[in-house]
Amino acid sequence: MFEKIHHIAIIASDITVSKHFYTQMLGFEIIAETYREARDSWKIDLALNGDYLIELFSFPNAPTRLDGPEALGLRHLAFTVNDIEATVAELSARGVDVEAIRQDELTGAFYTFFKDPDGLPIELVQN
Length: 127
What we know:
The chain is of the alpha/beta class. Helix content is 17%, strand content 37%. It contains two helices and eight strands, in the order E-H-E-E-E-E-H-E-E-E. The strands form two sheets. The protein has a four-stranded mixed β-sheet with strand order 1-4-3-2, with helices on one face. A hairpin with a 2-residue loop joins strand 3 (41-48) and strand 4.
């Protein structure tokens, strides 16, 4: 029935800050950038390695979401990396605060977390 994830939608509190974070810090490419006047909202379509992946939105007066990795709802986004140590070093050099690398005791995979400008947890996984 399902083939793959089509996209992930993220509502940013400051579209300029989040646009910079996802493009300049994480390396996503802007496919399209649209201002929707009727909604007073920006929509920025982002791709990673040529694959459409994230819709980044701004909405005026968007309510805040509960924080914490154990709150109900989407827990985090996770991206596969080939070399987690090199990726962490590159992100750190760009000013991203990344947690220490850990190893999953069940799978043996190495992983770590960091947050986007609105506190959304993002995981890196090296299998």
